[in-house]
Amino acid sequence: MEHEGPPLEALTRRLAECPADFLAEPRVRAAGQVHVAAVVADLLRDLGGPLITPAQRDSFSPTDAKRYRNWLQVVLIAAWLLHDEWFRAERRFGPAAGDFLTGGLAQLSALTTANSYISDADRREELARLALRDLGLRPAGESVAQAQDRLMTISTVERQRVLAAAKAAEERAQAVREAMAKKAAEEAAAQSSRE
Predict the structure, then answer these.
(1) I need a labelling partner for 151 at 20 to 30 A (CA). Which of 88, 120, 121, 128 fits?
(2) What are the sequence ranges of the domains in the chain?
(3) Sign of the alpha-carbon torsion through 15, 18, 22, 25
């Protein structure tokens, strides 16, 4: 996040205006309309990156539609976001964009539907901020600390981590309460048998 990127508002507006072509069904085997690997290849080229690798191409052409559909749709939406003129003019984000699309979105797409990155303001902001972070940027006008803090505040992944930690802490507390109750009952039983 060392470098300043485009204004966040421009990116979230771009996401809200995502065209229907990028919301169409991703092609998996013979079903669907959009060849995700082709969209990614065009994006990486336009961002000044190398050609899409065979491994990247294969990752965007899975055979299990049910398992990967949402991820592929999030990739298409993120590709639309990153095809913004600001990123294309820089001609240096191709490799980072490839990493973001192949790895950075997997966990996110497992937690939230692709459509929410178009329809929900917080999810649009989250996707824009994640993309900027993975490209080494922060929103225009924000300090590194502000950008990191805001991303942590709206992060779906962070929210899931906090909920899981709270659930684990509650389970530990419940186990301690049960152990204490059992010990108190045993001590009471021992006390009454001595009397």
Answers:
(1) 88
(2) 3-154, 156-195
(3) positive
